[in-house]
Amino acid sequence: METFKSKKVMLVFLLVLLIMLLPTRIFAATQSVAIVKVENDYSIYIDGLENKDFKFAFTNQNPEDETSFESQLIPNWEDNNGVNIACLEEGTSLNLNEPVFMIVKVGEELSVTELDLNKAISKTDMASVEAITTIIDVDTTQTTTTSDNENGVVTTQTVGQVNIIESAEYNYTDYEYQYNLIKIDGTESETATKLSNLVDSLQSTYSTLSTYNKILKTAEIRDLYLSLREEAVYSKVNDYVIYQPEDSKEGDKYLVLLQQLSGKEVVREDIQFLICTEGHKQKVEKPLIEIKKATALPRTFDSIILLVVLAVIVITTIAVILRIRKLNKNEE
Fold first, then answer.
1. Burial class (CB in 10 A: 0-12, 13-18, 19+), 307
2. Which helix (H) or strand (E) holds 83?
3. Which value, in Å, is the radius of gyration of the alpha carbons in the chain?
4. Considering all CA atoms of the chain, what is the largest pairwise distance in Å, rounded to the nearest integer?
5. Phi-psi group of 147: left, alpha or beta (phi > 0 → left; psi -120 to 50 → alpha; rest → beta)
6. Contact between residue 132 and residue 268 where contact means Cβ atoms under 8 Å apart
7. Residues 193, 184: contact at Cβ < 8 Å?
8. Residues in the chain with pLDDT < 70?
9. Please, is 22 exposed, middle or buried when counting C-beta atoms within 10 Å of its C-beta (0-12, 13-18, 19+)?
10. 279 touches 249 (CB < 8 A)
């Protein structure tokens, strides 16, 4: 009896040990992915796995039994920068018009993620977003000051501007340009404000971001830009200069949607930012009062002699007149 109990305990112990030693397959949470379309292939970046080895496979059916895909799993690929990715190649047997599921195995852990290929950003669009604000060469440091005097009231105005300038690749005078200004203040256009903040964030943190996060941000910027462009009413750029609006105030910030045209064809598109400077300033000019001064002749020795001579002549004349009158009285 004791021997039977001992064998039973030993059997249970061996079963527990066997279960512990056998690999356990479980489905993990859905993976967070970012997708880049390169020609007709899809490069899939998985958050947290850019530097980890994994295996992957694709299917049109949401798998219920993960073990059925063991033979289809292949090792991860690497992009040109050595980042680990899953790649859905052109010519796959999958129907890309139907739902596509990705099975990922990391160690012994498996996960299933449904892919939305419509959210993929093309390699070309990603490069354009990364180069945003530098695609069309401009100078945003210049200002223009004008003044007007009306009835002694002088009005001066200094305005910010965007100057389109020469580039190494394009002679800017060979093209026409059009633009749309959108004020960034959170009320006129929340989309423009959000786009501005995302561009600032991307440019200031780009070098520290993972490829996964770069793709997410560039895709969001692209979508916001396309939304604004669809509603934009463009104006022609005159003399290759865009001035701040007349009703703007110092510190106002505008998003500039800028397009370079060859005829009616859009050659390049870009985003710029216009920071407004001081608006109108008035001051009253004091009228100039002209004071005329009489110029006194300098006193010299010659003038004194002339005065003495004049006095002698006057006295002599008076004396002669008095003498004549006296003689006339004596004759009477």
1. exposed
2. none
3. 46
4. 199
5. beta
6. no
7. yes
8. 1-29, 66-67, 186-188, 279-304, 306-309, 326-332
9. exposed
10. yes
- Give the end-to-end CA distance of the chain in Å, rounded to a whole number: 199
Cα–Cα distance, 209 to 214 (Å, whole number): 6
Q: Are strands 41-46 and 33-38 parallel, antiparallel or unpaired?
A: antiparallel
Domains in the chain, CATH or no CATH each = 8-119 (2.60.40), 126-284 (no CATH)
Give the start-end residues of each E strand in 126-264: 138-139, 143-150, 153-164, 176-183, 235-236, 241-243, 253-262
Nearest to residue 215, comparing CAs of 96, 55, 85?
85
Write the pLDDT tens digit of every residue in 198-251: 999 999 999 999 999 999 999 999 999 999 999 999 999 999 999 999 888 888
3-state secondary structure of 41: strand
Per the listing, tokens 């786009």 go with 195
**How far is 182 from 254, CA to CA, in rounded Å?**
5
SS3 87: strand
Coil, strand or helix at 147: strand
Q: Which residue has tokens 């899953």?
A: 86
Distances (CA, A) of 278 to 74, 257, 259, 320: 63, 23, 27, 85
